[in-house]
Amino acid sequence: MNARTITVILADDHALVRDMLRERLGDEGDFVVIAATASAEEALKAAEAEPPTVALFDIDMPGLSAFDAARTLKAKWPKTRVMFLSAFIQDGYIRRALEVEASGYLAKSEPTETIVAAIRAVAGGAARFSAAVGERFVVEASGARLIEAPHTRTELLTPRELDVLSYLALGKAKREVANLLGISPKTVDHHASHIMDKLDIHDRVALARFAIREGLVKP
């Protein structure tokens, strides 16, 4: 096994998902799947034999909680990076992932290639989260992990950026926004770029959902 090999333990009680990921990672030249288990307990046993670079847990499994398993794993092997893969993108689950210093939280609806790329990035020290997670929480400046916003993510935006976001969320074109605010289309582009960077939301539909949830516009 060379120095660049990324070792992975998968834990998911859905055999279809587990086997699909194991096969897909096996097709990559830089991954070795140490174990693909149906429970968090089995994942910990596998880690005892060989601590992985990355441990990927499904959240909704019978038996030992994935979060408790992740906490145990991080306590014993601090260098192991922990990720969660789930059909549930809920604030409560995300906060529990925060508590165990997760470096990734991905929706199962993500394309397989996105999940594989995320595992590789996390192994390299980055953090990777689905857009729906990023809408609720923020990634710290180093990109190493997820942190909870102090109050609301709208506090990251200036008053002018909030104005621009409100109009964009209503579906207005950038030129129309420029006319409404008395600024140039280029300035609107500048504000829009800053908004997306600050919120880490790079899709107009996701921006609209965020604006509605934060009460900036009415649905």
Give structural notes.
GO terms for molecular function: DNA binding. This is DNA-binding response regulator. By secondary structure, the chain is α/β, with parallel strands linked by helices. The protein has two domains: 6-147, Response regulator (Rossmann fold), CATH 3.40.50.2300; 153-213, Orthogonal Bundle (Arc Repressor Mutant, subunit A), CATH 1.10.10.10. It has ten helices and eight strands. It has helices spanning 15-26, 40-49, 66-76, 91-99, 112-123, 131-134, 159-169, 174-181, 185-199, 204-213, and strands at 6-11, 31-37, 54-58, 81-86, 104-107, 128-129, 138-139, 146-147. The strands form two sheets. It has a six-stranded parallel sheet, sandwiched between helices. It has a two-stranded antiparallel sheet with strand order 7-8. Helix 2 (40-49) runs parallel beside helix 3 (66-76), helix 7 (159-169) packs across helix 9 (185-199) and helix 7 packs across helix 10. 32% of the residues are buried. The mean pLDDT is 87.
Work out the helix count: 10
Please mark out the parts with pLDDT under 50 across 5 or more consecutive residues, or reply none. Answer: none
CATH superfamily of the largest domain: Response regulator
* Oligomerization status of the protein chains: single chain
- The name of the CATH topology of the largest domain is Rossmann fold
